[in-house]
Write a structure and sequence with these properties.
Elements: E1 4-8, H1 12-23, E2 27-31, E3 43-46, H2 48-56, H3 60-66, E4 68-69, E5 76-77, E6 83-85, E7 96-99, H4 100-108, E8 116-117, E9 122-128, E10 131-136, E11 139-143, E12 145-148, H5 155-160, E13 168-179, E14 187-191, E15 194-201, E16 205-213, H6 224-231, H7 239-245, E17 252-258, E18 266-267, E19 270-272, H8 275-278, H9 287-303, H10 311-342, H11 344-356, H12 359-365
Parallel strand pairs: 1-2, 1-12, 2-8, 5-14, 12-19
Antiparallel strand pairs: 3-7, 4-7, 5-6, 9-10, 10-11, 13-16, 13-17, 14-15, 15-16, 18-19
Helix pairs in contact: 1-4, 1-9, 2-9, 9-10
Length: 386
């Protein structure tokens, strides 16, 4: 079966979905609210599950070229610099780190010219047995189905699931930045009430993030870089140096939120994907990765369908049945991990447990097949038509 889909949202999840649809012979119209295609944020890592999905799109090689191996999960430290666990020279790491813009560009390059329409803010959806019409100020388009990939503040989610609560503040806030510092292997430093993450990224840069507990959302500071530096002044190097090397305007301050679980990601011929369906805290590094997984599973569900009445709805129901349990479990796990890693009350027990764990056992747990989330393999997509 082939058809036409409207993808609402031109971020990593929406573009991944467009690439996957192209792979199975579908056509897509991607509607992006921003005036130009761009990815907001700083850095990220992608685990083996997401990298396998990119391989299925034919983007594994470009992803490996754009990403940088990071040993963050193998180098765990205390604020005074002592190591709880330490990666050994020559250890393999299954994680690749990216500037978000680099991964976004890789996916954007896989979307055919003319598929992306920017500066388009969706205002309405109307569906019937034959398809779905999407409207915006000054225009509309009709297609066989709609994928809402428009993020944690999703318009699609709000239009079709109007009774669902808004994003939920998780009691944590984060400062993010990119510093022109190369050669760092990646690490996580665990403090009482917060942690500091470092990933090396392309072109001799480092991505850093400081996640800390917060009493309320939307607390902002006149100089965000100064505030982050003040909080971390006594932590080991290169943490203060990384913050100092980051341009003032490049420090981003965000609050950590997620979404209540939905009973379904599908309504008729409309499906939610990525953060619009299952926004999660960053503590398992799976937000963008789960969006990429969504895209390949949705494409696989659509690929084998015959052109018969109800085929699209059936494919979307299978997508929901496969993706909702996994993504909701991942979101719950990320929320629990975030509580553990930033709770002052749990800090001593957590760091003691990590320090006492045999190094070989720790390395086994962070291997490519070391945990249930990373072991996931994508469904196979058909090869592109010649």
């Amino acid at each position: 079966m082939s058809g036409h889909a409207i993808v609402i949202g031109g971020g990593i999840g929406g573009l991944a979905d467009a690439v996957a649809l192209r792979r199975i012979g579908w056509r897509a119209t991607v509607l992006e609210r921003a005036g130009e295609p761009r990815e907001i944020g700083a850095g990220m890592s992608q685990a083996p599950n997401a990298l396998r999905a990119l391989e299925e799109f034919g983007l594994g090689g470009p992803a490996r070229a754009a990403g940088v191996p990071t040993y963050s999960a193998g180098n765990l430290r205390l604020p005074d610099g002592r190591y709880l666990q330490r990666a050994r020279p020559g250890d393999a790491t299954p994680l690749l780190a990216f500037h978000r813009a680099d991964l976004h560009r890789l996916l954007l390059d896989g979307v055919p010219a003319g598929w992306l329409r920017t500066g388009t803010e969706v205002t309405d959806l109307r569906q019937d047995e034959g398809g779905v019409t999407v409207a915006w100020d000054g225009g509309e388009v009709r297609a066989d189905l709609v994928i809402g990939a428009d993020g944690i503040g999703s318009v699609v989610r709000r239009l079709l699931w109007p009774g669902t609560p808004p994003p939920r503040f998780l009691g944590r806030t984060a400062w993010l930045g990119i510093a022109p510092v190369g050669g760092l292997p990646g690490s996580i430093t665990l403090g009482s009430g917060g942690y500091f993450l470092i990933h090396p990224i392309s072109r001799g840069r480092a991505y850093w993030a400081y996640v800390a507990t917060a009493d309320r959302p939307d607390a902002r500071f006149e100089e965000e870089k100064v505030e982050a530096a003040r909080r971390l002044a006594s932590w080991h190097e290169p943490i203060p140096a990384l913050i100092a090397a980051t341009p003032d305007e490049a420090v981003i301050h965000i609050d950590i939120c997620d979404l209540d679980q939905l009973p379904s990601y599908v309504r008729g011929r409309v499906a939610l994907l990525g953060d619009a369906a299952h926004a999660m805290s960053p503590d398992r590094g799976q937000g963008a990765g789960q969006s990429i997984e969504d895209a390949v599973v949705l494409a696989a569900a659509l690929a084998g369908e015959a052109t018969i009445k109800g085929a699209i709805e059936g494919a979307l129901r299978r997508y929901d049945a496969e993706r909702r349990p996994r993504t909701q479990a991942t979101a719950r796990g990320a929320r629990a991990d975030g509580r553990r890693t930033t709770s002052p009350a749990a800090y001593r027990a957590l760091t003691t447990m990590i320090r006492l764990m045999p190094a070989a056992l720790w390395r086994k747990g962070i291997a490519a097949d070391g945990n249930r989330t990373w072991r996931w393999h994508p469904p196979r997509l058909p090869f592109p038509a010649s």
